[in-house]
Amino acid sequence: MSSLYRMHPVQAIAITIVLTHSTEAICGERYISTTAMDLFEQHQQQLTESEAPLAARMRPRSLDEFVGQEAIIGPGRLLRRAIQADQLSSVIFYGPPGTGKTTLARVIANTTQAQFVAINAVLGGVKDIRGAIALAQTHRGQYGQRTILFVDEVHRFNKAQQDALLPWVENGTVILIGATTENPFFEVNKALVSRSRIFQLKPLDSSALEQILMQVLGDRTRGYGNQTIAIDADAQAHLINIANGDARTLLNALELAVETTPANAKGEIHITLPVAEDSIQQRAVLYDKEGDAHFDTISAFIKSIRGSDPDAALYWLARMVYAGEDPRYIFRRLVILAGEDVGMADPQAVVVVTACAAAFDRVGMPEGRYPLAQAALYLATAPKSNSVMAFFDALAAVKDEREGDIPNAMRDASRDQQGFGHGAGYLYPHAYRDHWVAQQYLPGSLQGQVFYQPSDQGYEASIQSQVARRREAQLAALVDSNAEKFLPEALTTGPIDRQQDRWLQRATGVLGEQLGELRDRIFTHLNPQRHHLLLDLNASTGLLTWEAIRQVPEGGVVALTHSEKAYSALVEQSAMLDELARPKVVQQITHLSPVVFDGIIGRNALMAEPNKLKAIQQLSPLLSPHGKIVLAESVPSRSQRLSALLDAAAIKPKLYQQICKAESSLYNNPDDAMVNWDVPDLQRHFETAGFDCKVTVVRWSSQVVITGELLARWMAGKYGDRLKAHGLSPTDIAYIQAQFTQQLNDKTVTWHRSIAFIQAAHT
């Protein structure tokens, strides 16, 4: 009781009265002291609340008074049901200031039957946590009462303080309610996050802010209901707009406007637009230099520039500058972007940006905003290329490949030329025409490897063909008899052959790029989750199988092949992967039952099937109820006509008509499973099999070299057979073959293909 004598006399009197009239005073000094202090704190809280700012006084006390956040607290929502049923589990409220995090905690305190203990992480520490836990254990043991521990600004606790909470949350001693303005997945102990439900609160919309404003004006106890206040429409709109979704900012501005505006002769406080503007002069911008808003805003800025949208770039730049972001940080990101996303398409980009950064350092703010905006606009409107990313492919090669020997001709000749012949055979480029000569620069084990792929944008377009021609010459030099000494190392090992095949594919056309685009389209439509199980219906090349393994690391991939050769090749290639990451390779679709897949993918999986409806029906039991089928099917009936490649004027008219008729019958042969179907047939088959189906047809064009071997294969295959079937004589066929050879041999033509992208799911 000695602590009573140190109190203010008035407070001591109040407590003495309570002690005198307490029917349970005989229960002991400890209980009496606690009761007295509880009343003292209650009296102090009442005084504080009566003198508190409007925003604090107007905090909702029940769910019915709470405004906004309908997505998480609206009728029927999980959080509302849990609060009303007093069955709340640990939760973390995450959102910007003024959106109702602390208010929701207070509503829960007023609603629940559990003991409610609050800690502010800015002021509290492990000692406070221990005190709260001790109180929770006492109430749980003596009264069987649960304890809700509210930790405001929970991200302010360090790791040790958060760890101190963990065991008590885990064993149910306390139910945690955390409130934070920072992303809990980054700033809060992962163990705490995993044991809590995360509710994200969004900035309040205009209608919610208006409703809050009306509540204040009508509340006679805590608001301004006892005063006559008139707010002009434009003043109200200004307050709501500048508050930017923050209820606290709105109420603080309204309070300032009301308290500083004298009443007129009628006793009315009139809030005009000028008064409102004086009360809230600057928009409350959500921006924390170490929080989500910082990273999200700079991300939006960079992506807008990468997407060549100067308007969006200026908007996000203005938002950062307005919020006080360090311009030097912005310049640093712009310099990075100039190299990463503009690169060789405009080599002057990095020069312009660094010059603007230097200009900013000279003039400072606010005039420095001119070079800052200039740098952003230059990059946003510049041609784009990320070809410098090739450097990271080279780094990966250095990391993953066995270190290759430096070619002898590339070695330093100044020291070991006599002893080891270092530098012998080096061809001095300046001694040759155009100051260039084809020779080996890469290690022999990497010869033919391509890292840099010039784009067709800006300056880079002007060097694209030059780089390609020189690579072709280097490859020719590699296989030339003059380079015979390099052949065993460069051409005979399996992995090196595959690298050269990839190089040749890129050097002779864009087929590789189109296959990559096709693969990316399939997986974009499928959008698999990391835990999904996928089936590749036609895994002969592994094009989709390897990407599937990458996208579902916690799931699995089954690869269906249709030949012994493809099966063996896929098994051999997958042996290089970790055992758990390897696809399961099968040869019969009947071997898959009773496995059910989240996604089924394929390239040309149905094109040659004689009974496409039956093949589609076989997929139905293999697909999970919420699964998806995504296929890419070439449509031969819509593919390139060979007759269209010929100059019709150079051929006898009657004979050219016969060629066209023969082609027409070839692509409309009802007995040929490759061509006796079209896109509507596939869509109908999927719908008959019980799928919702969407088909998108994409027409692709590529440059193809018509070789003599290809021409001979055409004439010896179905094409030649059709010409014979249409009554063309051997003389006519020989004439047609001669025309093909004369007009197309070794010529590059534009080849058109149609690809049907199919997306199907159970109805």
Layout of helices and strands, plus pairs?
Elements: H1 9-21, H2 29-51, H3 54-57, H4 70-73, H5 78-84, E1 91-94, H6 101-111, E2 115-120, H7 126-143, E3 147-152, H8 159-170, E4 175-180, H9 184-187, H10 190-194, E5 197-200, H11 206-218, E6 228-231, H12 233-243, H13 247-260, E7 268-271, H14 273-279, H15 292-306, H16 310-323, H17 327-342, H18 349-363, H19 369-381, H20 390-400, H21 413-420, H22 458-479, H23 487-491, H24 494-508, H25 511-526, E8 533-536, H26 543-551, E9 556-560, H27 564-574, E10 584-586, E11 597-603, H28 612-617, E12 623-634, H29 653-666, H30 679-688, E13 691-706, H31 708-716, H32 718-725, H33 730-744, E14 747-762
List the domain count as a whole number.
Answer: 7
Low-pLDDT regions: 1-37, 479-511
At the first level of CATH, the class of the largest domain is Alpha Beta
What level of helicity do the residues show?
40-55%
Give the overall shape, derived from the CA principal axes: elongated
Q: Can you name the CATH architecture of the largest domain?
A: 3-Layer(aba) Sandwich
Overall pLDDT level: 75
Structural class: alpha/beta
Could you state the CATH homologous superfamily of the largest domain? P-loop containing nucleotide triphosphate hydrolases
- Percent of residues in beta strands: 5-15%
Query: What kind of sheet is the major sheet?
Result: 7 strands, mixed
Q: What is the number of beta strands?
A: 14
Number of helices: 33
Distance between the termini: 76 Å
User: Strands across the major sheet, in which order?
Assistant: 10-9-8-11-12-14-13
Q: What is CATH's topology name of the largest domain?
A: Rossmann fold
- The Rg value, from CA coordinates, equals 38 Å
